[in-house]
C-alpha cells in the first residue's frame, strides 16, 4: 500500500496562514466592490415626473422643452421623486408600486378575472374614422378685411372655447379681422384671467393665418371709432351673417359681439366652414404652455396608478343652484341653493321643481349614485378615479359613500403640491383647463351631467379616435336608484346587468351627430339638436380608405 505523504508541520502551518490571508483579502475586495456599486447607482423610488410625450398630432399639443425642464425642476425641488409616498396621501391612495401591499393586489381584475379587466378598459372601435379637417381645393387665403370683429365671450371655460371657435368661423364668413377674444370676467366664477393666461395666444394667431387674420389688440386709431354692438342671433346660418351682419360694414369699421355662445348653426353650413371650426377647436386653440405642462404632469402622476377613470363630478354649488336639483340635500342646503339662484340675475328660471327635474334626467348624479353606477358597470373598488371638478358641494359629507366604495379618489389638489398649483389657484378657467386635459387623456371618461365640459370633452375624445366615454342615462338610472333607496331592489347581479345593458351603446362609438327632435319648431328645434362640438362626425371625421380598397379600385379602372 502506498503511504500518504505527510508535510512537515512548519510547512503546513505556513499554508494555513496563506489561505486565511487570501480569504480576508477576497472578503475586503468584495466589500469594496459592493460599496462602490451602492455609491454609484441612483435608486428612484417614485415614477419620473417627466411630462408624457404625446406624439399623436391631434392630441393636446406638446409644450416646449424649456417648460418641461422647468416643471421637472419644480418637481425635484418639491422632493416629489424622493418621497416614498406624498405626505398628504393615505396608504390607500398611494400608487401600487409604492404601497406595501403586494403588486398583484392592485390588478384591476373583476369577478371574472382578466376577461372583465379587458372589457372594462377596452376602447370602442373607431371603425376607421380619422380626422379630416383640411379645406377643399377651392379654399383661399382670407380676403381683404372689411373691418374688425371684437368678441366678448360668456360662460365658463368650455362655453367660451366653443364660442371662440364659432367666432373664428363668423370672422371668415364676414371677411373680418378678428381681435383676440375677451374672456368672461363677470360670470359666476369671477375669473380675472385674460386670453393669454388660458390659451397660447401666439399659436392661435399663427395657426389661423391661412383662414382668418387675427390680431392681439384693436389698432389705436380705431379705439375711439364708433362701434356697433350686436347680440348675434342664436344658431344662425350663413345667410344671416353674409346678408344681415356683413351689411354693417357699410356704416361701421368695428362690430362687437356681446355674446359668443351658440351663435352659429350646428348643421347646414359649407363643409369648409365646418372644418375651420374643427381646426380652430382642436388645432389652434391650445392651452397656454404652463397649463399644458401642469396638465400633462397630472396625467403622468395618474398613470402611476394604472388605467384610470376621469369622473366629471358636476356636484358643485353653481350647478346645483342653477339646475334646482336638491335630491339628498338637507333643507338648509336646499334653501342656500335657492337663495343663490334668486340672487343671480342672469339665471332666468327661478322657480324649479326639484323632483320633476330629477325624474326627467336633468339633474347631475349625486356622488352616492355615481358609486352605485360604477359598481353596476363592474369597476372594482381599487379602480383609480380622477375627480375632474371644482369644490364638491357639502365636501366630505356628500363624498363619504363614493369614497367608501372607491378609496383611490384623486384630484389635482391631491396629485400636486400647493406650490405647484399656486399659479392656477383662484382662476376657475385655468383650474378647469387642468381637469380638461386629464379628462381628454384618461382611459375612460364619465360625466355625471351633460354640461358644457362633458360635451366638450366627449367631442374631443371622439375626434382623437373615439376614446371610451360612458354617458350615463340619468333618466333610466333615477328609476333604478329610487327602487334601491326604497328597498324595492337590492344591488347585485340584476342591477348590474340592467345598468350594463342600458349603457351598452353609450360608450363613445362612432355615430353621426343627432339632428333636431321630431316635432320641435323654432328655437326649440335648434336647441334639441346635438351640439357641433359634442360630435364632429360627419364634418371633421372621415372613413380611412384602406390600401386594399384603393388597389382593387385601380385594377377595375
From TrEMBL:
Keywords: Carbohydrate metabolism, Fucose metabolism, Glycoprotein, Glycosyltransferase, Membrane, Signal-anchor, Transferase, Transmembrane, Transmembrane helix
Keyword Transmembrane helix: yes
Membrane topology qualifier: Single-pass type II membrane protein
InterPro entries the record matches: FucosylTrfase_pln, GDP-Fuc_O-FucTrfase
Main location: membrane
Organism: Gossypium tomentosum
Protein name, per record: O-fucosyltransferase family protein
Family statement: Belongs to the glycosyltransferase GT106 family.
Biological classification of the source: Eukaryota, Viridiplantae, Streptophyta, Embryophyta, Tracheophyta
Subcellular location field: Membrane
An example Gene Ontology biological process: fucose metabolic process
Membrane-crossing residue ranges in chain numbering: 21-41
Amino acid at each position: 500500500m502506498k503511504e500518504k505523504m505527510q508535510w512537515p508541520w512548519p510547512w503546513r502551518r505556513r499554508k494555513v496562514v496563506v489561505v486565511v490571508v487570501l480569504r480576508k483579502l477576497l472578503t475586503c475586495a468584495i466589500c469594496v466592490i459592493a460599496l462602490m456599486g451602492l455609491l454609484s447607482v441612483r435608486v428612484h423610488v417614485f415614477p419620473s415626473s417627466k411630462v408624457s410625450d404625446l406624439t399623436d398630432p391631434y392630441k393636446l399639443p406638446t409644450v416646449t422643452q424649456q417648460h418641461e425642464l422647468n416643471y421637472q425642476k419644480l418637481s425635484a425641488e418639491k422632493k416629489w421623486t424622493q418621497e416614498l409616498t406624498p405626505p398628504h396621501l393615505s396608504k390607500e391612495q398611494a400608487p401600487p408600486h409604492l404601497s406595501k401591499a403586494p403588486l398583484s393586489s392592485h390588478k384591476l381584475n373583476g369577478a371574472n378575472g382578466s376577461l372583465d379587466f379587458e372589457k372594462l378598459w377596452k376602447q370602442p372601435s373607431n371603425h376607421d374614422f380619422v380626422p379630416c379637417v383640411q379645406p377643399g381645393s377651392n379654399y383661399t387665403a382670407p380676403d381683404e378685411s372689411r373691418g374688425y370683429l371684437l368678441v366678448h365671450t360668456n360662460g365658463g371655460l368650455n362655453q367660451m372655447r366653443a364660442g371662440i371657435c364659432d367666432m373664428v368661423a363668423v370672422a371668415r364668413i364676414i371677411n373680418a379681422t378678428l381681435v383676440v377674444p375677451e374672456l368672461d370676467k363677470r360670470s359666476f366664477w369671477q375669473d380675472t384671467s385674460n386670453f393669454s393666461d388660458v390659451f397660447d395666444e401666439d399659436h392661435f394667431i399663427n395657426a389661423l393665418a391661412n383662414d382668418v387674420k387675427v390680431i392681439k389688440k384693436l389698432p389705436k386709431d380705431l379705439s375711439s371709432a364708433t362701434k356697433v354692438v350686436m347680440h348675434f342671433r342664436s344658431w344662425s346660418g350663413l345667410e344671416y351673417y353674409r346678408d344681415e351682419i356683413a351689411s354693417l360694414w357699410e356704416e361701421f369699421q368695428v362690430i362687437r359681439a356681446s355674446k359668443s355662445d351658440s351663435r352659429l348653426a350646428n348643421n347646414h353650413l359649407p363643409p369648409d366652414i365646418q372644418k375651420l371650426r374643427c381646426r380652430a377647436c382642436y388645432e389652434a386653440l391650445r392651452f397656454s404652455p404652463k397649463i399644458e405642462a401642469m396638465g400633462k404632469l397630472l396625467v403622468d402622476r395618474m398613470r402611476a396608478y394604472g388605467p384610470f377613470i376621469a369622473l366629471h363630478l358636476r356636484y358643485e354649488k353653481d350647478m346645483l343652484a342653477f339646475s334646482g336639483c336638491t335630491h339628498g340635500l338637507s333643507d338648509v342646503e336646499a334653501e342656500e341653493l335657492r337663495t343663490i339662484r334668486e340672487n343671480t340675475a342672469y339665471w332666468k328660471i327661478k322657480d324649479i321643481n326639484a323632483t320633476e327635474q330629477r325624474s326627467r334626467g336633468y339633474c347631475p348624479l349625486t356622488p352616492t349614485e355615481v358609486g352605485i353606477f360604477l359598481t353596476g358597470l363592474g369597476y372594482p373598488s381599487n379602480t383609480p378615479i380622477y375627480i375632474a371638478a371644482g369644490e364638491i358641494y357639502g365636501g366630505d359629507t356628500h363624498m363619504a359613500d363614493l369614497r367608501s366604495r372607491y378609496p383611490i379618489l384623486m384630484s389635482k389638489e391631491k396629485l400636486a403640491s400647493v406650490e405647484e398649483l399656486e399659479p392656477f389657484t383662484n382662476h376657475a378657467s385655468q383650474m378647469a383647463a387642468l381637469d380638461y386635459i386629464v379628462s381628454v387623456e384618461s382611459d375612460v371618461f364619465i360625466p355625471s351631467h351633460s354640461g358644457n365640459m362633458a360635451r366638450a370633452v366627449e367631442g374631443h375624445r371622439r375626434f382623437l379616435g373615439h376614446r371610451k366615454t360612458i354617458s350615463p342615462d340619468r333618466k333610466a338610472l333615477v328609476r333604478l336608484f329610487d327602487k334601491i333607496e326604497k328597498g324595492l331592489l337590492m344591488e347585485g347581479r340584476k342591477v348590474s346587468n340592467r345598468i350594463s345593458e342600458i349603457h351598452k351603446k353609450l360608450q363613445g362609438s362612432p355615430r353621426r351627430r343627432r339632428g333636431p327632435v321630431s316635432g320641435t319648431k323654432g328655437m326649440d328645434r335648434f336647441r334639441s339638436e346635438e351640439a357641433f362640438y359634442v360630435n364632429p362626425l360627419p364634418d371633421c371625421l372621415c372613413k380611412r380608405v384602406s390600401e386594399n380598397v384603393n388597389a382593387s379600385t385601380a385594377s377595375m379602372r
